[in-house]
Amino acid sequence: xxxxxxxxxxxxxxxxxxxxxxxxxxxxxxxxxxxxxxxxxxxxxxxxxxxxxxxxxxxxxxxxxxxxxxxxxxxxxxxxxxxxxxxxxxxxxxxxxxxxxxxxxxxxxxxxxxxxxxxxxxxxxxxxxxxxxxxxxxxxxxxxxxxxxxxxxxxxxxxxxxxxxxxxxxxxxxxxxxxxxxxxxxxxxxxxxxxxxxxxxxxxxxxxxxxxxxxxxxxxxxxxxxxxxxxxxxxxxxxxxxxxxxxxxxxxxxxxxxxxxxxxxxxxxxxxxxxxxxxxxxxxxxxxxxxxxxxxxxxxxx
Amino acid sequence: xxxxxxxxxxxxxxxxxxxxxxxxxxxxxxxxxxxxxxxxxxxxxxxxxxxxxxxxxxxxxxxxxxxxxxxxxxxxxxxxxxxxxxxxxxxxxxxxxxxxxxxxxxxxxxxxxxxxxxxxxxxxxxxxxxxxxxxxxxxxxxxxxxxx
Lengths: 302, 148
Known about the structure:
heterodimer; A: 3 domains; globular; B: Rossmann fold; 5-stranded parallel β-sheet; 5 helices
């Protein structure tokens, strides 16, 4: 649906649509992203090679309600007034039962509807493992080819699964907020260790200094702690600094293996779930004909 | 289907739009909700960027007679002729023909059952797959009537 009805045959070719998108046609870019999301195109088909990591694709992750969308809106207005073009991929969860999704991140991004130098696209997870659709990698590459200087990827607001963002983004920003409790810090250990920057948002609230201090003290025991910034998406305090630092943010050393592991898992999951017989396999497992462990050992040995 | 649900104009009553968004999600669709007080231009931009198949617009303030046709006109001008537009809210029956003339395919009033919304989306899908006109700029005189 929505990938070509009403367009002439020649206009439906991905390569043609890609060229139109590169020349600045928003509708062509949107249609191409649909094809990417549906797995209908590949780097090969578009004639591009996978992007070299250069810090221009930035993942923004963190628990629900810490202010990821509002922070992104602040970055959009700051960067576009500096003359940059910014694309956003906003990921929200799909229902595991119906496959439906309610995609609401743009509500908090005013620039999404107004600013000509901003392109926001909502992606549903479509139940891919780790809450990160595999198509996001190609989508971000396509956006970079269409002259968007920076691509921001907003993850679903969730816990440990957020680690999958390291397989698609060059840099990871973890957003935290005060008053979230000590246990939560422990729960977030995995992401904290991989983040290239930690932002403690809602600095207008009481307790934000202490939240930042808690994170700093938790990280002091690890080597190479990432920079920690205090911001308020509400009052814009700290936003300028964040916008500047994000443009030259170095990758956190020592995270290479973890990133490679996530990339491998993403590719593996994708290969598994795109098997032609996947529905039969799932039906078999659901009716308990065999256990998942048995199936894996029988079919995925090498 | 990717469906944008939008609230044009100054009307702040979005309970209906949210219920519809949720019901369509539960029916397995990907629904993008725009939030309140959007201009026709902002709504069309969302439809384009999100590559929506359908657009649902809701108004309870009485401004539908201006806003709905304006949105349809902007969609056609932007080349989105294949997007199916439907509406809801307080829309008097005698004001509906002009909305259908502007390219809308359905108007749902208070008391509409979610089952009917699902049937409408199903009818749109089957028309798209059989190449029958159902988009805002595709012409033809098909509009939804319940019990179809």
